[in-house]
Structure formats: structure tokens, C-alpha cells
Amino acid sequence: MDQDHAEKRIMELRSILDRLSYEYYVLDRPSVSDREYDRYYQELLALEQEYPQFFDAHSPTQRVGGTVLEGFTKVTHKRMMLSLGNAYNREDLENFDQRVRNEVAHPHYVVELKIDGLAMSILYRNGRFVQAVTRGDGTVGEDVSHNVKTIPSIPMHIDLMEEVELRGEVYMPKASFEHLNAQRAAQDEELFANPRNAAAGSIRQLDSAIAASRKLEAFWYHFVNASELGITSHHEALRKMEQLHVRTNPLRRECDNVDQIWAFITKISEQRKTLPYEIDGIVIKLDQLSDQERMGYTVKTPRWAIAYKFPAEEVETKLLDIVLSVGRTGRITPNAVLEPVRVAGTSVSAATLHNEDMIKQKDVRILDHVVIRKAGDIIPEVVRALSEQRDGNQIPYVFPTQCPICGSTLVRFADEANHYCVNQDCPARVVESMIHFASRDAMDIDTLGDKKIEYLHHHGLLHTIEDIYHLKEHEEQILALEGFQKKSFDKLIQAIETSKQRPLEDLIFGLGIRQVGKKAARLLAKKFLSMDALIAADIDDLVAIKDIGEITAQSLLAFFGEQRNLDLITQLKELGVQMSTEAEVIQASRFTGLTVVLTGTLQHFKRNEAKALLERLGAKVSGSISAKTDLLIYGESAGSKLGKAMELHVETMDEETFMKEVAAYEA
Fold first, then answer.
1. Do 642 and 652 touch, CB atoms closer than 8 A?
2. What CA–CA distance (Å, rounded) separates 234 from 223?
3. Distance between CA 532 and CA 566 in Å, rounded?
4. Mutual orientation of helices 258-271 and 90-101 as an angle, nearest 10°?
5. Distance between CA 100 and CA 281 in Å, rounded?
6. Catalytic residue flag (residue 309)
7. Could you report the average pLDDT of every consecutive run of 10 residues in the chain (667 residues)?
């Protein structure tokens, strides 16, 4: 075959395979057998190998992956990827509808499923796939094109030459998730918690072959620049996407009122468990693009759309046993061992019971049938025992008097619901204290996670916190262990060395002093400026600090009153760990002297960053709103605090205004 005929046949085969992929993955109506598809594919593969001058990164043969990146490139979105405000009941939807009707005479809505996956933006130019970018913080995401193009339903070519930006959700189907976790279980690897986490982990693989093997999928639901192409409504935009062979979700409905919307929600709620993918809500959007423009946006959310969130799923299972775990402070937590049951997309076999009082209050007994749910769709909890199902075999739980790990007598302090193991040499406490010390909010040794600490402790290399800083002396032993290579060892040691420069407040928090959380640690560092000054403080010095009560002060005195803790601090000091901080300089500003409350989800700051910034500008940041509050700064989904601020006539400021104010002082 000459070169011209080869090029023509290659183009023809690519077009055929693109059409067949669309029929198979999007329409679910294949027109040829798998064998016939494979024949076309192998012919194209052979021709591309024989004529490499016609290579195309967007060829169907390139979807299998194999590209390996050093890292991900940051990309600034041309248009921000906003998140949605939430509705939790019919009343919330009625309030949303009323807000819309205040500005739009006869609103028409499109109601769609909210896919539980990873938000994504894809870009086409001159009819060719150009780039895929994660949502990130809404302003800046990561280029994951090499992984997204392995998803077979996503077209690499579209029949439109203008620039096209589409947004949607990359997800892992339930079947793919179960298959992946079965593979990981067989290889004794940690299982993914749910399909969303699995999808996110797959998309962030540097090796696209791994992403390709995970069998991801995607639905696209927003044609960002539709109006530039003469499209006037959302439903029309969805149809245009389908004409371009882009996969949209067919389970959607056009509605004119809340009754119709609620009927659709009810129907989907009944079908939810049978869907081949996870959903976590229903999205309601104004249909006409001109109406969307009229409604506009808040700092972080479109005012023309809202997401209805499903109530926390409650399921019944059997409580097989109650076992105790020991935390870093010695706190004993009772945990329910359950017959495995699927809740909110994951298999649950354990749930916390908090403390002895909670067990008594809920009258939870071993072998009870219980109702469980995930608090915030994350943390499994026992809601109630089904006492009416008891058959006489249930066993009331008697809280133990001894530590399950070391056998020491448990102590319950006055005015506390928790029991404690007070033996500082308890192996469970030792491991948990090191895990806490290395955690992100403490010394942030990001390559020394829970499992690695437990592993190194098991092999006799970690017994105390100071041992962390001696790991570099055990290179030969560590490299002999399974799972360690020179590169990972060097990265671990570098992270440990970097941690020596963490702020004093992180060290104080990392020591795991009972009653001393992040806020107290920050206050103590700010007041005393050095570890030596903190150690020398007496009860009067400590309680004089606003928000440091007598219980916390006594806990600090008890901690520093033990020689072993002073020896630990001395050793850390000798190892080069930062033990002091500079006095904080307060910049005079319009926030100076104000009591400020933060609420909602902030787009441009983490909550602790905004708090630290306000404190540098002389504000006191409070967690609750009252008549004494001077200012409420709010982000997305501000909720009840914003409403209360308005009732109390407290000044409010959205995040955009806050950013402008801050810029004025930083200029």
C-alpha cells in the first residue's frame, strides 16, 4: 500500500472506530460484534506502526494509556468552576423557586442527577480534544488530559470547529469499583472507601495506563460557552452536546414548578440503589440562558441553580461485638463491630459508639439489630437499637475496667464521659502519639502516615517521637524492608528534616497534650513565644490567657511536670526542632478590635488561613454569632449563621468584598 492510500485508510479506520465507540459506550447500541471492532482496531494499529508519520495522539489506539508524567501542570480556568448551593428538603426548594420567581416571571427548569464523582472541564478547539482540567479550587485546577482521554466515551473529535468548553463529572461505575477493590484485596492493598475516592485517585495517577485500567466513565452536563454559538437554553445545549457525540445523562426532566421537581426527586430516590453509578443528589437549573444571566451569581455559586441533597441513608444490620480502641491521649473509644452492610456507597463493618454513656443512653447491646448511617455521609454511626427485634440472646455491654492493650486500670476523670488509659508506655498510645505528631495539623511529615508508623514500630525502628528524627541513621535496615526504596527513603528523610522548621504552635499541638487543640496551641505560642517560657509558666500565667481555662492549664502543668516529657523536649531541641517563634505583628486595619465570625465555604482561603489573616489584622475570630459579633464574613452555603446575623442586624460581608478589603491593606 502506498503512502497516500495508507493515510486515507488510517483516517477512514479512525472515523469508523470513533463511530463504533460512540455506539458502544454512549448509546449502548453496538452495531458490530466485539470481534469486528477488534479487526478494525488491529488493522489501524498495524498501519500506524508501519506509517509512523501519521501518528495522532487522539487516535483510538492511543486511549489505552501509557504516558507517564513527572507531575501535574496547574491551569487557571478561563471561567471559574463554581459549586452549587444546597437544598435539603422541599421547603428549601420552594424558597429557591420563590427567589427565582421574584426575578423571572415564568421559570422553566431542567432537573438532572447529581453524579458523585470528580468535577471536570474539557476543551475542544478546531474539532479536536485539547485539554481536561480538574475543578481544583474553582479558579485553578490540574491538567489531567493524559488520563481523561483514556475514557472511551469521551470523543477526541467533535463536528464543531469553534472553541467548546464542556463541564461534567468523571466517575467510577459501581461494577468497576467492585472489581477494582476485589483486585486490591487479592493483592493485600488498601481498599478504596467509595467510587468517588477511587475515581479521584485514578484521575491523579501519573501513569495513564493505570487510569485506563480503572474503567472510568463520565457524564457532561454544562456547555459553558453555549450562548456564543447561538444556543438559548440549557436543554438545547444538552441536545447539542448529544449531537456532538458527547455523553449526557438521559435521566433528566423539564419542570415548571416545585410539584413536578419533587415528583422527579421522589422517583429517582426510589431508583437510586439500582443505578449503575452513585449519585448524591438532584440538580435543578433554570433552563433559559437569559434567565440564568438575569439571576446571576454569588461569590461562589450560581443563583440560578441549586442541588438537592439526599437525606443520610439509614440501613439495618446486626451488632456483633463492641471492641475498644486506644487513642494517643489514652482515651478509650468503644466501637461497634457490625455485619458488613452497604451505606452511602461503601461497605461498613464498624461504627463508633463514642463512650460508655452513649451506649447506655441508646441501650445498645451485643447481638442487637441496629440502624446505622453515615454522619455527613462520611462517619458511620449507630443511630438506635431495634429493641423490638430482641429474642433474649442480646448481651448488655459492661464497660471494661482495664486497658485492652496494656492491662492498666482505666480512669474516668470528673466531668468527662470518656475513660482513659493513663499508662504512657501503653503500646497503643505510643503509636498513636507518633501518628499525631507526624500528622498534617502538627509537624506535617507527609510521607510518614499511619500505616508506615505502625510498620516501622512493628519492626522495632520507632518507639518514641524522638525516634522519628533518628530514622536517617537506620537507612540500611529500612531499605531491607518490603516497600522501601532509596528514592522513597530519601523523600521520607527530607520530609522529617523539613518538619524541624514547623512553627512553635504546631510542635505544641504535636506533643499531644491533653485538652490542648490547635486553637490553644496557637494561643500558647503567641503568648509565650518559646517552649522554655511555656514550660516555666505557672497556673496564673496560663489562666490569664483568654480562652485557656483551668482544666487546660492543669493539663499543661501535669504534662510539663513529668520528667519524661521534659526529656523529650530537650532531645527534640538538640535534634534541631524549632522551639521558638517571633512575636506576631498586628497590622492596624478596619478589622482591628472587631469580633468576626466566618461561615460558609470560602473559595479563596482555607478557613484557618482566613482566621490567621484576620487575627494579623487585629480581629478576634469567634465560632458563634451573637449580639456581640461585629462582622460576619460569609462564603458559599452560609446557612443559619447568615440568617441569624441579619436578625441581629450584624454587619455582613461576602468573600469577594473581604478579598478587596484585604488587598487594600496588603497593597
1. yes
2. 8
3. 10
4. 140
5. 20
6. no
7. 82 85 73 79 82 79 62 83 86 94 94 94 94 85 89 91 94 92 80 82 85 92 94 96 94 96 95 91 96 84 90 88 89 93 81 90 94 74 92 94 91 84 86 91 90 91 93 92 89 94 94 88 91 94 88 90 91 95 79 89 79 85 86 80 81 85 68
Gyration radius (Cα) of the chain, Å: 29
The CA-atom distances, in angstroms, between 54 and each of 51, 176, 384, 397 are 6, 34, 65, 72
**Residue 603: how many other CB atoms lie within 10 Å:** 19
From first CA to last CA, the distance across the chain in angstroms is 68
**Residue 112: closest CA among 212, 254, 17, 14:** 254
Polymer length of the chain: 667
Look up cell 518490603; give the residue.
Answer: 482
What 3 state SS string does 132-156 have?
EEECCCCCEEEECHHHHCCCCCCCC
- Of the residues 114, 300, 374, 611, only one is catalytic, namely 114
Cβ neighbours, 10 Å, residue 49: 10
The single-letter code of the amino acid at 386 is L
Q: Scanning the structure block, which residue is given the C-alpha cell 522519628?
A: 468
Residue bearing cell 482566613: 610
d(C-alpha 621, C-alpha 594), whole Å = 8
Bridge partners of 534? none
CA 323 vs CA 307, 399, 431: distances in Å: 39, 10, 18
pTM score of the predicted model: 0.55
How far apart CA 141 and CA 326 sit, in angstroms, is 39
CB 551 within 8 A of CB 515: yes
Distance between CA atoms of 634 and 652, rounded to whole angstroms? Answer: 7
